[in-house]
Model the fold of this input.
Amino acid sequence: MAAGKPLGKRTARWLRRNPLGLSTDVIVESRESIDFPGLCVVCGKDVSGTSVRLRGNPVGFHGMLPWIIQRTKPLIVPAHRSCGRVLWLTVLWRNMSLLVLATAGVALALWLEWSRWQALGLVTGLVAVPILWHVFCPVAFEFTFKGGRFVLSFRDHELAVKVAEMNEGVVEEDVNRCR
Ligand SMILES: [Zn+2]
Done:
């Protein structure tokens, strides 16, 4: 590893942007859409006007159906086509794995005639893996929208702050963040 210095600098910058790999949430109230700087939300590079249309994540268990039939809030987001596709597939895989594991846990508990608490323990154990993966390896960008309120989740802290400034949003500083 001859070029130790640049790698060290890159790692330091990444750690500064992603301490513990946790994401930064931005809350934006009373807006129909969100303004972004002209940078890809996934790779951070210039997008030259390219954007992708993303759908909001489900809010609560009852939000699953609107999400499955693609009726959650759409948002136009600056991203390269390939970056947007990877982002969409990653969110899809994560959400579907949660849904499938939770359903499988309930079905198995019913089949084994377990008590409610045993069933809850099983489902919690099964969904813990995708949830922990999401917490420590957050996707570059995702959002929810409910009651006129956007919750935008960014892997890049600096981008989150920039978007908050552009939309009069509030950055929800994570308690684990050390600065
Ligand atoms: Zn990109």
User: Anything to note?
Assistant: Strands lie at 24-29, 51-55, 74-78, 141-146, 149-154, 170-172. The pocket of zinc ion is lined by residues 40, 42-43, 45, 79-80, 83 (CB under 6 Å). The chain has one domain: 23-172.
